[in-house]
Amino acid sequence: MATMATGLRHAKCAGSIAAAQWRTAVLPRSTFSLAIRSITSDSQKTTPPNLEVEVAASVPIPYQGVTHARVVPATPSYFSREPQFNDLYIGISKLLTKYNHLPTVPPSEAPQMPWTKLEEMRAQMGEPIKASHYAKVMRVAKRLNLIEPSLRPQEVKVALTEFTRDINPFLNMPNPITIDKFGRAVGVGKRKESTARAFVVEGTGEILVNGKTLSEAFGRVHDRESAVWALTATQRLDKYNVWALVEGGGTTGQAEAITLAVAKALVAHEPALKTALRRAGCITRDPRTVERKKHGHVKARKMPAWVKR
Amino acid sequence: MASISLRSLVRPSLPVAPRIQPIIIAAFSTTSLVSAAAPPAIKNRKDLPKKTKKTYKKKQNIVPVKKPAPGERKAFRKRIQLSNNSALPVAGLDALEAQTMARAESSGRMFAVPDEVVDQLRALEAFKSTQTWNLFRKPHVLVRKETVELMGRLEASLEKKEAFKCYQCQDLTNGNTEYSPVPDTEPMQFTQPVYCLKLLQNIYKANRAVLEKTPLKQDWSRLSATLKPGSTLADLALSAKESEFAWPTLSALWTELTQPGQPPVLLTLDGLAHINKVSAYRDPAFNPVHAHELLLVRTFVDALSGKTKLPNGGAVIAATSQNNTHFHPSQELALSQLEAGQAGKPVPKPDPYERKYDDRVYDALKNSTVMRLEGVSKEEARVLMEYWGASGMLRSVLDSRVVAEKWALGGHGIVGEMERASLITMRM
Amino acid sequence: MASRVNIWGACRSLALRPRPARIAAQSFRSQISSTRFYADDATNKPSSPPSGNSSASGSISESRPGNANARLTNELAQDASAGARPSDALDDAALEQILYGGRPVTSQREGGLTEAQEEALYREGVIPPPEEAEAVLARSEAAAESQSIVSIETDVQKAGHKFGLPQKPYPEGFHVKKRYHPVLEQITRLLMRHGELSVAQRNMATVMNYLRTAPAPIYSPKFPLLPGTPPASHLPLNPVLYITIAIDSVAPLLKVRNIAGAGGGGRALELPVPLAVRQRRRMAFQWILDVINKKPSKGSGRNQFAHRIAEEIIAVVEGRSSVWEKRKLVHKLGTAARANVGSNKLKAKKKK
């Protein structure tokens, strides 16, 4: 923010002709911003007609009636490091001061916004925005987003669109799993390198993995239990039949991929089970994978042995 | 003087006091001294003998431990324990009797194995160390639907079953037992004397009561002087004291049992695929030996194929499974054809591109009946698990959901896998 | 998200904002008392009257599991401040006296442990009397039920499920990653080598089966187990309880921490520190593992490690194990160092 401040200070010096108005404008807080705008608007509105008059008169007396020696920039932020961004910040801070009194909702209930990322904002504005500045701006924007949606002024809504991406990824919902005419629901699950598809249908509790029974598919009892955990936890092992196809990875990965696949398909049959399945740890995709190898290392973390010369 | 001086040159003829002379015998070596490698020449400082750094670290004081005797560790591993005093005794279960298994109403029920049968089965090595007999107070068995079916068939073929033979046939063909060729056979046949001796002793232990009552029909005095015309089969079985006489005695016993008027015989074998392959043995010309050239196996196969008749009635049962086996095309073909024939389905034809068909195996199997064993049904699984619960081995509440869970985890009711999933686990 | 104060803090760095910066309220910090002991977290009452062993030995019911550690520190501290006697009076038995009101002969009740008692043992490492355990269990259940109010509404609608929803509160071991008993889980991870979890689990299962097939242990009067231990005949059929009792009985109650330079003259100050349940179990099982690794195996095959563990657990329960000596040693050291609990040098070091 220090750079912004200095930038504005420069703007002050540049507009030294209007110094008297500036000083007076500073005193009352509410009209302070108006004062800045008045400078800019003045320079914009007044200069073109003056020039036209001069051209029309074609009087060779130079600089007559000219109030500014050179073109005054549209905004005092012009002299800062990040002019557009600075303007954005000033504008949104003013909004916050203005609507600070409005009731807010807890952060969990605020509408989900696809906030512009730092990189995107840099690319949009073409300015070298500092990460710390970006963070401060985003804090203000997120505070504004907390204002109760029904009471939110139009002004705020418009201002917040400046901070959001055009595409809202939160509206991208996966296609719901449907139950086909044979009563099957297909769930897909992944874990480590494994991918599993589970076809879940109401039945008597027979489970086949790649056409084999559980005991043939998995040698370890722990893995067999994992594979049908979604059914055992919700006490539905004798209510459904499962036909699973799984490929890639090792035994643990395959078993837990089936867990996820079966759970998703089961939720398609009975949506109310989702809470219970989440508590049973069957809904969440485990994102852990093998850590990549780094150069200079023998494996992901192992360093080569120390050699004396 | 000349004579004196000459005498001084010759060897003194006077007897010299005997001295103890060291006897020097050079070490025997065929290489000359010159060709022995000389110590490496020292050319520079590198070749100088290096000072070895003395380590002052204290050696860990190794406590002398009494090492186990040879065979002790294996015996510990292979130990078979049939009772657990901590387990709760299960009351209200009937004992297994001769006729129980054949009755239809006993299907799907648990039965206690009587002590004398336990001893017999133990002698025949019917219990395995991988099974969970050691968890329960007493051996109990579940009579399945298939058991009743099999026993019904056995009942039809014989009135009173008397003698058992039980082979663990993997040991026969994997080259782990001693073997010796039988002279004057073409192609050469082999016996396994040590195994035969052990088998004879096991047969005697398991069937002592029957053998002692049955007199010999032929004169076997050439085998042993103790065998008189009036002696019994038990004497015959006991007459083999050393492994050289084991096979003649065993074949004599087999000949006796196939005579008319003797008790019926039940021959059983586990691991059929192992006796149908080319064994790990080699003949003197180092050609591989087909398992059917082993006389013990040959005896069984002849009985199975019907070449040896059982005039007194009897049965030959061979079992194979998907575990501890290998793919044998002829065996697969024969079994699938028999199964399809029994079910009235179209019989599969042999694959014309398969080169590994073995006619001897096919001929041995083609006259038999096939019975496929799957896992137990859910009702039978429930009975089994109730028994586990009553023994105190299963601590969770037992309801149909738990039964269905363990049934599915055990690969649709495979008993061994169900035991793994519910008894030998951290969740109980 | 950012609180209001922080938002203003963010705005404050804006150059053109004329509003004076608000001073953040920082006075609440000074309200916290300057001296904090380990015991402060656990005890509700400010301090119990110093009465030595007599008050502590009142009854077993006094030895509330949560307070055990706290009371230990309190007692030690009071003892130290009372005159810092040398370590003659407070030996191992006295320590037991303070903690448990002595180790009585194990309970001879017919029924063994109630379910609530077992649960308390697994959670806190102490067997409370049945009534108290019931009360604790009831409290935790009430807390769980208060969470499940929301679910009842969905149940009324009868929508979204075909065979009924699973009962709340969800049972132990409901989560796929927490399906085993917590005590077993901890021990399994401890005996795992080279990250081979499945081998460790197999070993653990073998240990449990060995315990189930072994005859009931014979308790040694010389090394009493946890107060309230059920009769020996109850243990083999409940291997989890068997293992827990063995480990909790032999677990040390404290460890001695060396605080560098606080002893004066460049020496370290030995400070006894109470251990939490999980820490205690870990310590005890590491000791057991040390003993096992020095023992030769009796047979061959892959179950030997498990058999040695099981034999050592039985040895602990029967009082034959050398782990008991280790425990005694640590407690002796702890009692000797108890004079250092409220040491001035410690405070001086903290202030720095």
TrEMBL record, chain A:
Look up the record and report any one GO term of the cellular component aspect: mitochondrial small ribosomal subunit
For this protein, the record's InterPro entries field holds: Ribosomal_Su5_D2-typ_SF (IPR020568), Ribosomal_uS9 (IPR000754), Ribosomal_uS9_bac/plastid (IPR023035), Ribosomal_uS9_CS (IPR020574), Ribsml_uS5_D2-typ_fold_subgr (IPR014721)
The GO terms this record gives for MF are: RNA binding; structural constituent of ribosome
Q: Which UniProt keywords apply?
A: Ribonucleoprotein, Ribosomal protein
SUPFAM superfamilies from the entry?
Ribosomal protein S5 domain 2-like (SSF54211)
Q: Which GO terms describe its biological process?
A: translation
Please name the PANTHER family in this protein's record.
RIBOSOMAL PROTEIN S9, SMALL RIBOSOMAL SUBUNIT PROTEIN US9M
Which protein family is it in?
Belongs to the universal ribosomal protein uS9 family.
Report what the protein is called.
Answer: Small ribosomal subunit protein uS9m
TrEMBL record, chain B:
Q: What is a GO molecular function of this protein?
A: structural constituent of ribosome
GO cellular component terms, A-Z: mitochondrial small ribosomal subunit
Q: Does the keyword Manganese apply?
A: no
Subcellular localization: Mitochondrion
Q: Which domain of life is it from?
A: Eukaryota
UniProt family annotation: Belongs to the mitochondrion-specific ribosomal protein mS29 family.
Under which name does UniProt file this protein?
Small ribosomal subunit protein mS29
What organism does the record attribute this protein to?
A: Hypocrea jecorina (strain QM6a)
TrEMBL record, chain C:
What functional role does this protein have?
Answer: Component of the mitochondrial ribosome (mitoribosome), a dedicated translation machinery responsible for the synthesis of mitochondrial genome-encoded proteins, including at least some of the essential transmembrane subunits of the mitochondrial respiratory chain. The mitoribosomes are attached to the mitochondrial inner membrane and translation products are cotranslationally integrated into the membrane.
Q: Where in the cell is it found?
A: Mitochondrion
Entry-linked CDD domains: uS7_Mitochondria_Fungi
Concerning Pfam families, the annotation shows: Ribosomal_S7
Q: What is this protein called?
A: Small ribosomal subunit protein uS7m
Could you tell me which residues belong to the region Disordered? 36-67
Superkingdom to which the source organism belongs: Eukaryota
Q: Which family does it belong to?
A: Belongs to the universal ribosomal protein uS7 family.
